[in-house]
Write a structure and sequence with these properties.
heterodimer, A: mainly alpha, 2 domains, 9 helices, 72% helix, globular, B: mainly alpha, two-stranded antiparallel sheet, 77% helix, 2% strand
């Protein structure tokens, strides 16, 4: 695969195909995140690893085993994601528990990972699927980190109308990020 | 007063903090009323069935195996719902796309199973699942009506003649999802705070 194509896929994963903000997959995990930007970065890195390893297993699984029993696809993919997350958590337990508390398992099993595995079944080759996973994972990680940084910023609570405090203002902040992404993509 | 109490119960009884976890599929399926109703029905049925099964089995599932067991029970029901919807409403399944499958790992359904069904009997689990499911369906349908009407100038896929020159495409897109849900949540906050205030006044 040409370097320019790989660069294009990575940029698309961060900008135009941003899975959390534009595709609404794993949005809850990003919005719910109350951690610092450093912890979010570590958690995002772990999730990217889960995405790549899950794709490494689910793409061949779908191509060679599940194409005739497509109704088992979701069940098989959830099982694979579950195993991958548990194995990563076992191997890197100390790092993950120190940096991201002990909820990595629940966090990493989210719609973004499963949705990406299903999306990747349409990729023609395993290499293309893996590059796409890494790109989407980097996009997810950056979104989480930037959003955590925005939430960390001190704002005057009194300036926000009482009914908009909490989830509504969080959604509007994420909406502003979406506008910025859409502006970059010249879509808006 | 009775009417107010019912509304208050629905909003108080539904953990509105859960909406943040389900914000993704609410926004994804609220671009069209049919998709919103389809997703609402899927969430309601998945929560209801998984709550019944989990509350019946939670005593025999070992503590260490709860996460995989619950996820697989939920996934089984979501796959079943997906197949039934594919058979009877294929256009709705096409609209929902991958979001219907990702309902299996949705924190909303899992948290309901873990926090309610795991600690209570069938009756409480069914009641909580019904209230939460209906709440999500109502929020999705309200968002969908606004987004479809303003963003696409259609309702249930039928074009509305007088809106054709005034539609705002961005409302039907990703940004519209965040904006409309934020406004709907602000209205819900206003209603719940009003009821809290009324209850406090009654107590005093």
């Amino acid at each position: 695969m040409d370097f320019k194509v790989i660069l294009g896929v990575i940029l698309a994963g961060i900008l135009s195909n941003n899975i959390a903000l534009l595709e609404f997959l794993g949005t809850g995990a990003v919005l719910e995140n109350e951690r610092s930007s450093k912890k979010s970065l570590t958690l995002g890195l772990g999730t990217t690893l889960v995405m790549v390893i899950s794709t490494l297993i689910t793409w061949p699984l779908n191509k060679y085993l599940l194409h005739e029993v497509s109704y088992l696809q979701t069940m098989a993919f959830v099982l694979v994601v579950l195993i991958v997350v548990e194995v990563i958590h076992l191997i890197a337990k100390n790092i993950l528990d120190n940096y991201c508390r002990s909820d990595f398992v629940k966090f990493a099993i989210n719609g973004a990972v499963l949705g990406l595995c299903i999306h990747n079944t349409h990729q023609e080759t395993l290499v293309a699927a893996l590059i796409n996973s890494a790109a989407i994972g980097i996009g997810f990680m950056l979104t989480m980190t930037v959003y955590a940084k925005l939430k960390d910023t001190e704002v005057d609570e009194e300036a926000i109308p009482p009914t908009f405090r909490g989830l509504p203002i969080d959604l509007l902040t994420a909406g502003m990020m979406v506008l910025a992404l859409l502006a970059l993509n010249f879509k808006f | 007063m009775k009417k107010g109490t019912k509304t208050s119960y629905l909003l108080k009884g539904t953990p509105s903090a859960l909406l943040v976890l389900g914000a993704g599929f609410v926004m994804a399926s609220s671009a069209d009323i049919r998709a919103a109703l389809g997703m609402g029905a899927a969430v309601l049925v998945a929560m209801l069935l998984s709550s019944i099964v989990i509350s019946a089995l939670h005593k025999v599932i070992p503590a260490n195996a709860k996460l995989p067991a619950y996820l697989l029970i939920i996934t089984g029901f979501v796959s079943l719902i997906s197949m039934i919807m594919q058979a009877y409403f294929p256009e709705v399944v096409d609209m929902l796309g991958v979001h219907l499958a990702t309902l299996s790992v949705s924190a909303v359904v899992y948290r309901d199973a873990e926090e309610v069904a795991d600690h209570n009997g069938e009756a409480t689990s069914i009641k909580t699942a019904l209230v939460t499911g209906i709440f999500f369906t109502v929020v999705m349908v309200v968002c969908a009506v606004i987004r479809e009407f303003v963003g696409k100038a259609t309702l249930w896929g039928e074009p509305i003649a007088f809106m054709q020159n005034y539609k705002i495409d961005a409302i039907a897109g990703a940004f519209g999802g965040y904006l409309v849900l934020a406004i709907v949540m602000a209205v819900i906050n206003k209603i719940t705070k009003l009821h809290h205030h009324l209850d406090e006044e009654e107590e005093n």
